[in-house]
Structure formats: C-alpha cells, structure tokens
Amino acid sequence: MSTLEISDLRKSFGAVEVLKNINLSARSGEFVALVGPSGCGKSTLLSMIAGLESVTSGEIRIDGHLVNDEAPKDRDIAMVFQSYALYPTMSVRQNMSFGMECRGIPKAEQDREIERVAAMLQITPLLNRKPGQLSGGQRQRVAMGRALVRDPKMFLFDEPLSNLDAKLRIEMRSEIKKLHQAVGKTTVYVTHDQIEAMTLATRIAVMNKGILQQYDTPDEIYRRPANMFVAGFMGSPT
Ligand code: ADP
Ligand code: MG
C-alpha cells in the first residue's frame, strides 16, 4: 500500500506551462479520479507520476520518498493506457509474463502469478490467444492483467475505457471497481467521463488549463463545487 504526495508541481514544454502549481495527495488505497477537458494536462500529470515525463519544478513523493529523478522501472507503478499496447505477436500469457521475465522472476512463479490474475479477471480461457483474436473488452482485461501480475505499489489509468462502446464501458467500470476493492491499491484514474469518476473515485481532482480547480469527495464536488467551472463540468445543480 502506498501514498502519493504531489507538491507545487509544474510542467512546461518550452515556453508553455501546461501544469501550474499542482498540489494533490492520495492516501494508501485511495482511488483518485482525475477529470477535466481535453488538453488540460491530465496525461502529462500521469506521465510525470510514472516517470515518463520530467518534472519542471515541485515534488512527487511515493511513500514519502522523493521520486522526481527516479527511473520509471524503479517506481514500481503500473500504467494502463487507452491504447492497450499489447504485443501483437505474443500470446496473452506471454504478454502477461513479459514484465516478470524482464525482472528475472522464475518461470514457475510467473506461471502461478498469471494463473492467479487470469482467474481474477476471468481471462483464463484466453491465455493462449493472440491479441488480434480478442474483443476490445477482452484486450482491456488483458492490459489490466499485465499490470496486475507485476503486483505494483500503485496503478495509473489513462482513459482506459474510452475506446469501448457504451455497454462494455459500464460493464468494465464495475469490473474496475471490484478489482480495486479486491486489491486495494492506490489508483489515479484519468477519465473525461464524469459518471465514471463519480462512481469509482474516493476523491475527484477537477482540472482546467493546467490548474487543479477542486480536489474533494464526489459528494462534495457535486454539492459544493468550488467555482463555476467545476459546477459546469461536473453537471452540478449550482
Ligand atoms: P489531457 O491528457 O488532459 O488531454 P495532455 O496532458 O495530453 O492533456 O496535454 C496538456 C497540454 O500539454 C496540451 O496543450 C498538449 O498539447 C501539451 N503537450 C503534451 N505533451 C506535450 C509535449 N511532449 N510537447 C509539447 N506539448 C505537449
Ligand atoms: Mg490525455
């Protein structure tokens, strides 16, 4: 279980500042939904937590430990993207074992771990298939499976369901909720779907133009939006 603390975080690409003084923390096991219009900086923030983008200024701490200059592989964070990025020539089993293989985990342990996670996600019958032989929902499950076998400290999701049709999106939403309840890992979940955020999150971070507008429980965000932007974006009554 891990905590996340982000203080006075800024990010510039050249002269353009895309994240402005972000302060955000997550308790151990918390599910934070990060929402806001396209281009507001959600993916950039997630990439900085994962270590895929450098920090311009400010601090990112995991379990109190400063990770600003730590390589992605040392952060022990799993990221699931919108595009599933499964290796097309590898079977589902190989896709799931690849990360463990790279870390030198013994084959028997890899297999045990794959069986466990596959059972949890109900993808056991798919283990020998290639990604091309899977539906969108199945591919998404495999992508999550691949993140889970690494038993990371923290999960980052970047709009994982936005490529799926409405029915499947709702189904997967409850799968993700169940999964979070089962493993209890600290999660930051980017979505542009307000309902997804409301149903999944313990707290919601609403961003606009690189500025964190409000960070609060779904109920507080809905009942007491901090400003007109939050009220409008989250569809609150005010
Ligand atoms: P979101 O995920 O909320 O849609 P992004 O984090 O992808 O937003 O982008 C935030 C802003 O940063 C956008 O204006 C985008 O064009 C810009 N941006 C993102 N990545 C880069 C980059 N590598 N170089 C320059 N600008 C970038
Ligand atoms: Mg994005």
From TrEMBL:
<keyword id="KW-0813">Transport</keyword>
<dbReference type="GO" id="GO:0140359">
    <property type="term" value="F:ABC-type transporter activity"/>
</dbReference>
<protein>
    <submittedName>
        <fullName>Carbohydrate ABC transporter ATP-binding protein, CUT1 family</fullName>
    </submittedName>
</protein>
<keyword id="KW-0547">Nucleotide-binding</keyword>
<dbReference type="GO" id="GO:0008643">
    <property type="term" value="P:carbohydrate transport"/>
</dbReference>
<dbReference type="GO" id="GO:0005524">
    <property type="term" value="F:ATP binding"/>
</dbReference>
<keyword id="KW-0067">ATP-binding</keyword>
<dbReference type="GO" id="GO:0016887">
    <property type="term" value="F:ATP hydrolysis activity"/>
</dbReference>
<feature type="domain" description="ABC transporter">
    <location>
        <begin position="4"/>
        <end position="234"/>
    </location>
</feature>
<comment type="similarity">
    <text>Belongs to the ABC transporter superfamily.</text>
</comment>
<dbReference type="GO" id="GO:0055052">
    <property type="term" value="C:ATP-binding cassette (ABC) transporter complex, substrate-binding subunit-containing"/>
</dbReference>
